[in-house]
Amino acid sequence: MTPGQIINGLSQGSFAVLCKVNPSGSLEVRRLAAGVQFYWRYTLDGKTDRVPIGPYDSGAPPKSIKPTDRGYSVQAATRAAEDLAHRHRATIDEGGHRAAAKAAKQAKEDARLYTLDALLTDYCDHLETLGRSAHKDARSIFKLHVREAWPDVARRPAASVTSEQFADMMRKLIEADKGRTANKLRSYARAAFAMAKAARTKPSIPLRFKAYGITSNPVADTEPDEAANKADKNPLTADELRTYWQAIRGLDGIKGAALRLHLLTGGQRIEQLVNLRTANITAASILLHDGKGRPGRPPRPHAVPLTKAANRALAECRAAGEFAISTDGGETHLAATTLAAWAVEAVKDTLPEFQAKRVRSGVETLLASARVSQEIRGRLQSHGISGVQARHYDGHDYAPEKLNALETLEKLLNAKK
């Protein structure tokens, strides 16, 4: 019987062999409800598999060797089966077509699971596990400026995302006058890719990052917006700090106590101060945890000595429960935005341009004017400690020097304008 006769004589659901295929296997057909389907059939290790080729096109030229828009001629299907058979034979030692199909299926599944969005989410989860507060900022930026702004790119396999695509994300933000956000997006995404890349050789990184198959960092090739990275040098002047101090020194309740504690401990980062645990309070100091620093590192313990006035302010916070600065008995900590808003409210009539973040830089500037060294100011406010000597050999806690700086700060705040 000719192949055409075999196909025409097929009953629905049944298979039939059309011909042998060189170098192995055979070409088969099966009639389905939607039409006739071609298969390449082969046997390996005693197990037979059928590999779908495509539908039969009865209107295709009989001698055509390429498929039409509607399907295959018998000749074209035979050629397709021969290609499969040759590739199978060439890789028989590695498992042949069965192994290749399994690998292709796994690659397709990996492409579905290990997307850019998944990598960025895993990175944020890792930051949260380490106790890094930056995970909140990173999640928000990735949500707004990757997942929602570039959904097609977010769904791509992370290993296939290009530097140009990240540059386009940043360009869109820069054109919207959001250069600082563009730089933060670059910083967070670069750290995520760096972690996934390092996971191949660094056992301390969770194994799930290795599954992304990252061998290069596309974000590292982009350039930040240098204009947006300029420091916002607008510290409170000495007189402005004294005005602020006079406004909060007699303020009652948790508002006044928290604001005084913030200023009298040297303008610590508000996010870190409000996270103060009751268990981390002693008569002489408080222990904060600095989440700033190198990506992937846990927060650094940061001890801040207490002056007598700071101790009184802390006592007025009535620390109880887990969190020391709280309005619900320590179950949750005061929000950083709330403390910042209280500070603005306290001086809204006398310092209309006041921002809580200016307290920190104002304190450093005031201490610098009193000749407190840069190193002591940096250790008091937990700036980055660099250098091999400082990080690995200097074991001094600098508590006396920091306490002296804070006592100097109090004297300056209470001095006449």
3D architecture notes:
The chain is an alpha+beta fold and 417 residues long. The chain has three domains: 3-111, no CATH class; 114-229, Orthogonal Bundle (DNA polymerase, domain 1), CATH 1.10.150; 238-414, Intergrase catalytic core (hpI Integrase, Chain A). The chain has helices spanning 3-8, 74-90, 96-113, 116-129, 134-147, 151-154, 163-175, 179-198, 238-248, 253-264, 270-273, 308-316, 336-346, 357-369, 374-380, 388-393, 399-414, and strands spanning 15-20, 26-32, 35-44, 47-55, 285-290, 300-305. The strands form two sheets. A four-stranded antiparallel beta sheet has the order 1-2-3-4.
**Dominant shape:** elongated
Radius of gyration, in angstroms, nearest whole number = 34 Å
Structural category is alpha+beta
Which superfamily, in CATH terms, is the homologous superfamily of the largest domain? Intergrase catalytic core
CATH topology of the largest domain: hpI Integrase, Chain A
How far from one another are the termini? 110 Å
Low-confidence stretches: 386-394
Strand order of the largest sheet: 1-2-3-4
- Helix content class: 40-55%
Q: Provide the number of structural domains.
A: 3
Number of helices: 17
Q: Helices and strands, in N-to-C order?
A: HEEEEHHHHHHHHHHEEHHHHHH
CATH class of the largest domain: Mainly Alpha
What can be said about the biggest beta sheet? 4 strands, antiparallel
Strand content: 5-15%
